[in-house]
Amino acid sequence: MNEEDPHEETKIDLEGIDERFEEQSEAQSEEDARSSQMATRPLLKDRDPKGVNQCLKVTFEDVIAEPSSVRSFDKVWLWSHALFEVSRLWFYRIISLLLAVPLSLIAGVLFALLSCLHIWLIMPCVQLFLINMHWVQTIWGSVLDIAIAPLFSSMGRCCGSISVRVARE
């Protein structure tokens, strides 16, 4: 510790804390950027993490199966298997290339439109209706308490003494 400035050690510690804080905030911002990229970019290995399309896991054996009593030539079976797998893969890729981008654009616009309508139109109208209809709720509750509740209470008391006995003959 220096004799001239008794607070020098404190200044050094504060500067060190500031540097560590800046490093941590930079690391946090980098991690946030990485996590937002991971959230927006689909994972390439597991494209159906929630198992939404389990029914589409179709293999050759699920579609074509020869019983032991009837069999084709082994080469025909192998070529059919290879042709099935290759055609399924490539036709899916071609069709998804043509349709995936436009359909995802349409789905995104549709979900954005529905979200906007729900947030800015439907919920404010529902809240406005609930706020303005409080008097109807009060009157309806009074009508139920005055007219309907005593009627059903009386019917319950009348029918409460009924007992049913089952006898076998």
Automatic annotation (TrEMBL):
TM annotation in the entry: 97-123, 135-153
Family: Belongs to the caveolin family.
Protein name: Caveolin
Compartment list: Cell membrane; Golgi apparatus membrane; Membrane, Caveola
PANTHER family: CAVEOLIN (PTHR10844:SF29)
Cellular component terms per the entry's GO annotation: caveola; focal adhesion; Golgi membrane; sarcolemma
GO molecular function per UniProt: molecular adaptor activity
Membrane topology term: Peripheral membrane protein
UniProt KW keywords: Cell membrane, Golgi apparatus, Membrane, Transmembrane, Transmembrane helix
Function: May act as a scaffolding protein within caveolar membranes. Interacts directly with G-protein alpha subunits and can functionally regulate their activity.
Any one Pfam family match given in the protein's UniProt record, by short name: Caveolin
Annotated stretches, region: Disordered: 1-48
Gene Ontology annotations of biological process type: caveola assembly; cell differentiation; regulation of cytosolic calcium ion concentration
Biased segments, Basic and acidic residues type: 8-23
